């Protein structure tokens, strides 16, 4: 994941560009559920700045991390990214963390 300065620079550019779009749709950021708590905090710190403010978050994207909570060997052997039910615990925790870290920013849970 990019460092906090790189995130800041990216979000400033994206938010400024989005403001120039007439009748623009909501600007949402999709995050993977396997971000560490520190990475989650960095993202939240950046998107809470006025110049980087987005309209909401989408949580969570797929992950290649294989959590211990996988319920069967078939899931553990998948070579690509996992999504859906195997990530329920991880993504639920991420929704809670990001909601708290962003003071209630709108979140779409996936």
Automatic annotation (TrEMBL):
Residues 4-109 form the Dihydroorotate dehydrogenase catalytic domain. InterPro entries: Aldolase_TIM (IPR013785), DHO_dehydrogenase (IPR050074), Dihydroorotate_DH_cat (IPR005720). It comes from the Eukaryota. SUPFAM superfamilies: FMN-linked oxidoreductases. GO terms for molecular function: oxidoreductase activity. Pathway: Pyrimidine metabolism; UMP biosynthesis via de novo pathway. Keywords: Flavoprotein, FMN, Oxidoreductase. Its cofactor is FMN. PANTHER family: DIHYDROOROTATE DEHYDROGENASE (QUINONE), MITOCHONDRIAL, DIHYDROOROTATE DEHYDROGENASE (QUINONE), MITOCHONDRIAL-RELATED. This is Dihydroorotate dehydrogenase catalytic domain-containing protein. It comes from Cryptolaemus montrouzieri.
